[in-house]
């Protein structure tokens, strides 16, 4: 394909109502045909009525007084919000003319959802693509990537070995025909989540509690999603932003490294695009709790009803989360307790995707635990949702703790050719605000080139 099917601006992804009505209608009709390029205009947190896709979790599930609001990523094209930063990174390269159709093959380093997003977006926009990811992720992820026509390039290991995918990408980038959508280091990922996700979070709580956000929890993979916290703090300066990572891979907390089962997070690094200035706390979540929690939500409808959750609510929850979504929910409950939040307070978090790519994860759980009958699920429900404590929460607001994170970032990124001066420039909020302001430039450039095409 020689012509790029230009898609939405950042502002149109935040407010699809601002898209030309005829194009908007075509996009809504295109949802029936997954690989119709008009689906680029469905990259948004909003539904057909321009309302945010969200769930306010039943308090019979969370056991806390605060309102826990979860934005649902499964409604994005390809089934995950990671398609947003994949598109944003590619479209910025297109309008900057650093990525040229017919000349470049797109590289997508990932542990899953971003790779799926890259495969999907490149299919719609007419590029060949290679997704580089660890060789021990869920089989559903590989199947979906290949379904969209991308080539898989697998590196050894699991979620915690993503550094090997970066090293492989670094090698492949030496070929000038390859262009990388490097989610861990390119700032379109930050821009998408600060503008589109952050402002969507702000709107999502307008009719809930006091209409403000007390806390935002986000498991850290590429650290794109947590950029929403920068925009949340602009609206609600008192809001606390909490980075979640696996108990088994506590890199931000104390430099720890280890294997874990929460796909999409805990990548043994402080990513380049992580604005640690706005990370107030880091909390650790045990990986098995997220998988057991997923089992309860998906297969324990009767158990949830015993707790006072209606069958209708339970059925909505059933398909809405993957392991990282459960991690974010457990983290939200933990922080509601830690911060002593009350019934008017709102904690916002994100479900990156839905259950559809995790059947094999529950199959693995069944193999590891000989018994998963209802009496076991009742015990797990109590252990995971009722006994969540305030342990493993670490305050990162002090200058000393910020410096710890900056040091980790230097350790991770100097070896990839970034200068210390560049990394030091990230220690000032003005760096991030200037990067965010580039959205206005890209909005205009995308509209201008879209009109020509």
From TrEMBL:
SUPFAM superfamilies membership: Tryptophan synthase beta subunit-like PLP-dependent enzymes
Co-factor(s): pyridoxal 5'-phosphate
Residues annotated as domain Tryptophan synthase beta chain-like PALP: 72-353
Keywords, alphabetical: Pyridoxal phosphate
Pfam families per the UniProt record, alphabetical: PALP
GO BP terms: alpha-amino acid metabolic process
InterPro entries assigned to the protein according to its UniProt record, in alphabetical order: Cys_Synth/Cystath_Beta-Synth, TrpB-like_PALP, TrpB-like_PALP_sf
Lineage: superkingdom: Bacteria
PANTHER family according to UniProt: CYSTATHIONINE BETA-SYNTHASE
Annotated organism of origin: Candidatus Xianfuyuplasma coldseepsis
Name recorded for this polypeptide: Pyridoxal-phosphate dependent enzyme
């Amino acid at each position: 394909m020689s012509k790029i099917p230009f898609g939405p601006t950042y502002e149109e992804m935040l407010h699809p109502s601002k898209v030309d009505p005829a194009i908007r209608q075509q996009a809504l009709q295109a949802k029936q045909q997954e690989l119709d390029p008009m689906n680029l205009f469905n990259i948004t947190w909003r539904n057909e009525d321009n309302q945010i896709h969200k769930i306010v979790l039943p308090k019979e599930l969370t056991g806390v007084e605060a309102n826990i609001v979860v934005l649902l990523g499964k409604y994005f094209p390809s089934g995950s919000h990671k398609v947003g930063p994949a598109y944003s990174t590619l479209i910025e390269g297109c309008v900057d003319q650093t990525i040229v159709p017919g000349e470049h093959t797109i590289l997508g380093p990932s542990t899953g959802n971003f790779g799926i997003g890259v495969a999907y977006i490149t299919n719609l926009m007419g590029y060949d693509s290679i997704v580089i990811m660890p060789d021990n992720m869920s089989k559903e992820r590989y199947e979906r990537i290949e379904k969209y026509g991308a080539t898989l390039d697998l590196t050894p290991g699991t979620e915690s070995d993503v550094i090997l995918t970066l090293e492989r990408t670094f090698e492949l980038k030496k070929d000038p025909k390859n262009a990388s959508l490097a989610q861990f280091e390119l700032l379109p990922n930050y821009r998408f989540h600060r503008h589109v996700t952050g402002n969507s979070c702000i709107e999502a709580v307008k009719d809930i509690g006091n209409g403000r956000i007390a806390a935002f929890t986000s498991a850290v993979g590429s650290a794109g999603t947590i950029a929403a916290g920068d925009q949340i703090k602009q609206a609600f300066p008192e809001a606390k932003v909490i980075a979640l990572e696996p108990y088994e891979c506590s890199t931000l907390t104390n430099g720890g490294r280890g294997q874990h089962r929460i796909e999409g997070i805990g990548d043994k690094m402080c990513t380049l695009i992580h604005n640690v200035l706005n990370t107030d706390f880091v909390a650790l979540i045990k990986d098995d709790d997220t998988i057991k929690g997923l089992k309860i939500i998906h297969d324990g409808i009767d158990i949830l009803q015993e707790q006072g959750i209606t069958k209708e609510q339970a059925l909505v929850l059933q398909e809405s989360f993957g392991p990282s979504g459960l991690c974010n929910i457990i983290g939200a409950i933990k922080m509601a307790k830690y911060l002593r939040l009350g019934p008017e307070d709102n904690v916002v978090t994100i479900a990156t995707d839905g259950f559809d790519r995790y059947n094999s994860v529950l199959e693995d759980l069944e193999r590891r635990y000989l018994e998963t009958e209802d009496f076991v699920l009742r015990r797990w429900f109590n252990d995971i949702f009722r006994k969540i404590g305030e342990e493993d929460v670490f305050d990162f607001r002090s200058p000393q703790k910020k410096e710890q994170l900056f040091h980790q970032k230097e350790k991770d990124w100097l070896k990839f050719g970034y200068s210390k001066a560049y990394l030091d420039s990230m220690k000032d909020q003005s760096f991030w605000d200037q990067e965010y302001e580039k959205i206005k430039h890209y909005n205009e450039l995308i509209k201008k080139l879209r009109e020509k095409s």
